[in-house]
Design brief:
The chain has helices at 12-25, 30-35, 40-73, 100-132. It is mainly alpha-helical.
């Protein structure tokens, strides 16, 4: 037929033979590919997608740590400054929170620390005011 010029047809076997190396590369055995349930390929593809997504996130997170470390150390690379005038920021003391529970825990801890800091500052302020006032003006 004239309209079929340039089209190539492949048998199912040829298609499967082309796909076999891909599925073997993502963990499927030769026997599973050729002799087991055909629906397994969907599970292997999905598992591969999840692995790729997790790996991508891990590399992105690693990049965040490297970026922050470089930003923290960047004052050391300012050669126009006198030595000792600029100090690097300390590296993060704990890993970044990843899960929602970790984020919530971090926010609660920061709120508690902020509250404790405020209480300490108010107590110090009250003590300074108390020390400056004449003794007879203080309530008994």
């Amino acid at each position: 037929m004239e309209g079929d010029k340039g089209l190539t047809f492949q048998s199912y076997r040829e298609v499967f033979e082309q796909l076999c190396p891909y599925y073997m590369s993502i963990g499927m055995t030769y026997d599973e590919f050729w002799n087991q349930d055909v629906s397994m390929v969907k599970a292997y593809r999905k598992a591969n997608e999840l692995r790729d997504k997790r790996r991508n996130y891990e590399l992105w997170l690693q990049g965040m740590y490297i970026y922050e470390a470089l930003c923290d150390a960047s004052p050391l690379f300012r050669f126009s400054m006198k030595k000792g005038t600029v100090k690097p920021e300390p590296y993060v003391k704990e890993p970044y929170p990843i899960t929602a529970a970790e984020v919530r825990e971090l926010e609660e801890r920061k709120a508690r620390e902020f509250e404790e800091r405020l209480k300490a500052e108010f107590a110090e302020l009250a003590e300074r005011i108390r020390n400056k006032m004449p003794q007879e003006a203080l309530p008994k």
